[in-house]
C-alpha cells in the first residue's frame, strides 16, 4: 500500500490559532471538508494530499480496511479518501471499502458490520474515518472545539433524526473530540453567506449534498451580535446521487440487462427482477449485492435470458467491483451537462463498452420528478416561515447539485435572477460551521 495511506500531511500554509482550535467539519455522504476559524474570523480550508501528488480541499468520505501480517499477526490497516480508493483497487478481494456512512446514521436497523474477524458499529467506522482524516492535518481532535453539520432530515425511509444526531455525536466523541457542537448544514451555509451582507436580510439557503437537499430560511442582521434567527427548516431526501441514478437508469441499466426477459421451465417470458437495478441507485448498495446468493440468482436468470451477455456484464460489474469507475463516469457526465447542451458518457469493463451522448434536454426530463420534489421542499420552508417568495431578500445555494441548470432555474423562476447567488461548491458549509464557533 502507498505510504501516504496512513501518513501525515502538513499543509505548508497552516497557522495554528490559540487553543482550543475552532474547526468546522462537514462530514458528507460523498465528501468531507475541514475548515479552521481564527479569533479574527479569518478562515483556512485544510488541503488534503492526493495520490497524484496534488491536493484537494475535499476528502472523499471513503474508508478502506485491510489486513497485513506483522510479527506473525494480522493487523488491521486503514486509509481514507483517495488513498482508500487506491488501497481497494490494489486488492479489491481483500479490502473492505466503506462508503456512504452518513446515509446509515438515522437507520436503526443498521447497527454493525463484520470486517474480517471484527464486528464494527457504524460509530466505530465513522470514528475511524475521522481519526484518519485528522491524521492528514497537524491537529489532534483533543485540542479542538468542533462544530459538525447535520442535515435537516437524515436520508432514508423511516429515518430517526434524533438517532442520527446522537450517533453522529458519539462517532465524533469516539474519534477523540472532547468538545462537539452540532448545527444544521443549511444554517451553517447561511453563516458563511452572512459575511457578504452589509444590511439586514431574510435569506433562503439551499444546501445540496449527495444524499439530501436542505432548505433554511433565516433572518440575518450584520450589526447584531445574535447572528442568525432561524425561521424555517425543511429537507428532502434526494440530491446529487439521485440525479446520477437517473442517468444510470436511463442510459446504463439497459446495457446491464434491465429490459431483458427470461423463462422458467420454458414458460412465458418474464421481466428480470427490477430490484437488481434499483440497487444501482447508490454505489454502496451495489457492493451489498456481492454475495454468492445474488450472483448465483443473476447467473441462473442469464441462462434463459433474451440477452444473456448483458446479465453477464451485470455480474462482472458486481463481482469485480467496478462500481466506483461507473459512478465516476456518470458523475463526470452530469457535471459536464451543467455547462454544455450535451455530454458523452464513456465507460468500459471486460465485455462491455458504453460510449453514448446524453443531452441536457433528456437529463432535464429524467430529473423533472426530482425537481418537483425540491420545489415542494422550498414551499414547505416558506410555509413554515409564514413568508411569500417576494419576502425573501436573498437566495444562497451551495453544493455541487446547485450548478445543475434545472436546479438553478427552480430558484430563479421563483425569486428572480438578481436574488439568487451560488456559493463555494463544496466548502461553504464547513466554512460556516467554523465561523459559527468563533
From TrEMBL:
Superkingdom assignment: Bacteria
UniProt-listed PROSITE patterns: HSP70_3
Keywords: ATP-binding, Nucleotide-binding
InterPro entries, per database record: ATPase_NBD, Heat_shock_70_CS, Hsp_70_fam, YegD-like
GO MF annotation, one: ATP binding
Keyword Nucleotide-binding applies: yes
Gene3D superfamilies according to UniProt: 3.30.420.40, Actin, Chain A, domain 4
Entry annotated with the keyword DNA repair: no
Pfam families, per the entry: HSP70
Family according to the record: Belongs to the heat shock protein 70 family.
UniProt name for this protein: Hsp70 family protein
Species of the source: Acetobacter oryzoeni
Amino acid at each position: 500500500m502507498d505510504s501516504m495511506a496512513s501518513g501525515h500531511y502538513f499543509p505548508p500554509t497552516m497557522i495554528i490559532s490559540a487553543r482550543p482550535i475552532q474547526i468546522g467539519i462537514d462530514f458528507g455522504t460523498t465528501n468531507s471538508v475541514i475548515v479552521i476559524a481564527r479569533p479574527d474570523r479569518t478562515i483556512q480550508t485544510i488541503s488534503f494530499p492526493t495520490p497524484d501528488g496534488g491536493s484537494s480541499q475535499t476528502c472523499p468520505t471513503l474508508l478502506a480496511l485491510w489486513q497485513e501480517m506483522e510479527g506473525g499477526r494480522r493487523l488491521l490497516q486503514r486509509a481514507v479518501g483517495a488513498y482508500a480508493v487506491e488501497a481497494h483497487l490494489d486488492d479489491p478481494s481483500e479490502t473492505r471499502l466503506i462508503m456512504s456512512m452518513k446515509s446509515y446514521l438515522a437507520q436503526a436497523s443498521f447497527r454493525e458490520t463484520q470486517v474480517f474477524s471484527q464486528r464494527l458499529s457504524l460509530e466505530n467506522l465513522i470514528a475511524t474515518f475521522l481519526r484518519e482524516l485528522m491524521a492528514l492535518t497537524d491537529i489532534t481532535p483533543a485540542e479542538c472545539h468542533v462544530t459538525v453539520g447535520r442535515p435537516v432530515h437524515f436520508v432514508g425511509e423511516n429515518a430517526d433524526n434524533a438517532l442520527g444526531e446522537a450517533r453522529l455525536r458519539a462517532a465524533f466523541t469516539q474519534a477523540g473530540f472532547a468538545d462537539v457542537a452540532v448545527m444544521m448544514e443549511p444554517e451553517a451555509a447561511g453563516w458563511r453567506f452572512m459575511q457578504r451582507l452589509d444590511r439586514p436580510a431574510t435569506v433562503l439557503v439551499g444546501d445540496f449534498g449527495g444524499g439530501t437537499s436542505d432548505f433554511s430560511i433565516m433572518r440575518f442582521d450584520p450589526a447584531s451580535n445574535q447572528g442568525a434567527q432561524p425561521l424555517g427548516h425543511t429537507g428532502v431526501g434526494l440530491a446529487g446521487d439521485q440525479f446520477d441514478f437517473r442517468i444510470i437508469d436511463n442510459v446504463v441499466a439497459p446495457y446491464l440487462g434491465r429490459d431483458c426477459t427470461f423463462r422458467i421451465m420454458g414458460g412465458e417470458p418474464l421481466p428480470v427482477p427490477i430490484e437488481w437495478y434499483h440497487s444501482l441507485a447508490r454505489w454502496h448498495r451495489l457492493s451489498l449485492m456481492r454475495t454468492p446468493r445474488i450472483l448465483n440468482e443473476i447467473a441462473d436468470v442469464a441462462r434463459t435470458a433474451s440477452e444473456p451477455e448483458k446479465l453477464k456484464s451485470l455480474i462482472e460489474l458486481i463481482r469485480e467491483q467496478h462500481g466506483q469507475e461507473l459512478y465516476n463516469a456518470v458523475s463526470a457526465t452530469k457535471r459536464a451537462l451543467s455547462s454544455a447542451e450535451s455530454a458523452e458518457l464513456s465507460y468500459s469493463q471486460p465485455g462491455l463498452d458504453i460510449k453514448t451522448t446524453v443531452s441536457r434536454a433528456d437529463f432535464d426530463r429524467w430529473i423533472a420528478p426530482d425537481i418537483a420534489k425540491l420545489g415542494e421542499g422550498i414551499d414547505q420552508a416558506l410555509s413554515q416561515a409564514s413568508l411569500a417568495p417576494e419576502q425573501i431578500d436573498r437566495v444562497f445555494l451551495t453544493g455541487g447539485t446547485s450548478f445543475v441548470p434545472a436546479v438553478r432555474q427552480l430558484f430563479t423562476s421563483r425569486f428572480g435572477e438578481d436574488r439568487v447567488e451560488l456559493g463555494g461548491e463544496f466548502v461553504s458549509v464547513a466554512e460556516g460551521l467554523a465561523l459559527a464557533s468563533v
